[in-house]
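From: lab user (bench 3)
To: helpdesk
Subject: output format question, protein + 4'-deoxy-4'-aminopyridoxal-5'-phosphate

Hello, I'm new to running complex predictions and I'm not sure whether the block I got back is the full result or only part of it. Here's what I submitted:
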Amino acid sequence: MKSSDFYKRAEMLMPGGVSSPVRAIKPYPFYTVGAAGAKLVTADERELIDCCLGFGPLILGHAHPGVREAIEKQLASGWLYGTPTPLELDLAELIISDHPGLEMIRFVSSGSEATMAAIRLARGFSGKSDIVKVEGGFHGAHDAVLVKAGSGATTLGVPNSAGVLPDLVSHTRQVPFNDPEALEAMLAKNDDIAAFILEPVMGNIGLILPDDGYLAAVREITAAHDVLLIFDEVITGYRVGVGGAQVAYGVSPDLSTFGKIIGGGLPIGAFGGRRDIMEMVAPSGPVYQAGTFSGNPASLAAGLATIRYLHMHRDLYGAMEDAARAIDEAVSGRGSGTFVRLGSMFKYFFREAPPRNYLEVQECDTAAFGRFWAGMLSEGIFLPPSQFETNFLSTAHAGREIEEITAAYRKCLSE
Ligand code: PMP
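Helpdesk reply: Thanks, we reran it on our side. This is the complete output you should expect:
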């Protein structure tokens, strides 16, 4: 069976033939039947160098032996208990010790669940109703954050999805990224804001870096207005380094959300922060939160193995950054766009200058991206299939893979 055959079956079974929208590549997605290291193997017997990496979690690459061993060891003793486990203490201690200001944590099963709970907690703790998010910021697929970034109209939210009640998202306000004055104005005008949630480095509209001083300004402004600051580190946690963006940029939020890498490639999420806030969570406090699969032992084992490995091999962050820099240098001067990177995250934008916010990123030539993306795939490189997703490298992307990625970039950008 080939990918096209699988997709014919899928279209009858699942909306759009997929389990998550961005996978619905036209005219049909390739189906994956195996993976190891930096590579995916497709049902069409192709080997592809993977720069999507499950949309971020697989920082050690596919089927990493140490992570696999940890999962297999856990599976031999069961994979769901419905009780506390020693594993969750180990992972909690590790994450807490890596993030100054993080005093308590709760594990959930996805990044969406983590941001949903963190927002509820911020409201429960502060007694205030509204949240502010960044235009184009993505925090998962739940109602409060599925709000379209309006073109400049940043006061009241407009739902981004049918089925999300306008009433509900009227409590979600928006400001542009990299604009501390807009945040200051928003918080000065409104005294009903419980929290400001943002990705400290935007990873869901391509890759947008914070301007120098932006995150520190955001910290100062939220503190001055008694508004909680939530860093959504679902992508950046352990991706931009041990300690995530909050350590890299030296700014401590009140609450943080995590996912992806902390589960080593198995489903996970977590939220955590200041003890006085976290103690509001049930059963120690009145903010309800619960989950059958929360703290799943297999995910914890995979996450622990991954984070311990990263602790032991911190030099790998530098090696991944060097690899991204090599791609950057090789493509510089080719094509009319611009290359943006941070550590092992990178993106080529079909726009002259690096975008600084959602409005600017929308100026990208998405048709050109589409042609480029298809060219890269035919060269054997799988990039996330959108101008508005970030590319990743793993520790398994060695010299050979980087050379192939670089050569494909040069070729496809020249075309
Ligand atoms: N927050 C951010 C910053 C994300 O990138 C994502 C997913 N890409 C989420 C939250 C949602 O995580 P999940 O898909 O695990 O629900």
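A quick orientation on your result: Residues 149-155 have pLDDT under 50 and may be disordered. Let us know if anything else is unclear.
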